[in-house]
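call fold(seq) -> tokens
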Amino acid sequence: MTTNGGFQPVFCTIVPPHVLDKLARNEDPALSGPARRSLEHDAYQRTHRRLTTVIGAPAVAPPAGAVADQPHRTIYDARHQQDLPGSKVREEGSEPGPDATVNRAYTGLGATFELYLKAYGRNSIDGEGLPLDASVHFGTDYDNAFWNGEQMVFGDGDNEIFLDFTIPVDVIGHELTHGVTQHTANLTYFGQSGALNESVSDVFGSLIKQYALGQTAAEADWLIGAGLLAPRVTGTALRSMKAPGTAYDDDVLGKDPQPGTMDDYVRTGRDNGGVHINSGIPNHAFYLVATAIGGYAWEKAGQIWYDVLTGGGLKQDALFADFATLTVRAARERYGAGDELQAVQKAWEQVGVRTL
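ret:
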């Protein structure tokens, strides 16, 4: 259930559909073929997600003997098929095997669980010890990773544009955070509320990476998906929270379309109203808050964002201004009228979002 009373899980991928659309039109079949198959896979999974929403997903409880406040991870191998979850290849407590993809998925699920538990006292994605399941080697040259409302799924990439999707731990954290949002504010996946949904996943995905690496806000790269792009791509990542619009500028992928302020807000009917594009604006606001406060970003900036996500006051169809106003309120309630509050107010002002 969610704090807003509705349960509307959505199908969320790390690579935006507009990127795959562009690749699918490329004249080189080595690029267009995997992109087209990935779009087909995504369409199928999106339909499956809607059907599950209608008939209800099965309730999943921690297994008998599960230790409280400890992750319960299971990794499956889809063996390049589309049927989920696949064959079980690693479970909680077992030793690493020869498959690096399996091991990275296992570690990434653990890193996500640890950040939420240690920093915010949250026991897994739903707050009640939800088992963390993931399938790797999904499809053939599948160019994406997603949370389908019940589990994580990772493609191997095509090795032309994208590499293995388990490589960046922030990708794992991003997708699992869609599950956290699903069980809390349940932000509608369209327009500004959808961009907030994506931004929250980027924020906590980045915090999970920073926590795992022990990085301060000043030390972090603030990139989403660093290490995911193949060597032939002119770019560093899928998105940049520090400098939206600069993550890539490539002959094949085009230029990163993310705006960093409301002056460049993109109005489009594609990508659910630009949810992966306009998320750059709240992303940049969080970066500004975190670097202004300093120290470890998950401690204060992340706490403010987490308070808003889980506090019950964030409406499903919230606009940027609604979210910004709640962050100001949360900063004041938790830290008083000090540097934290000023950092939040100034950040939203810098990106052009008014607070009430």
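The chain has ten helices and ten strands.
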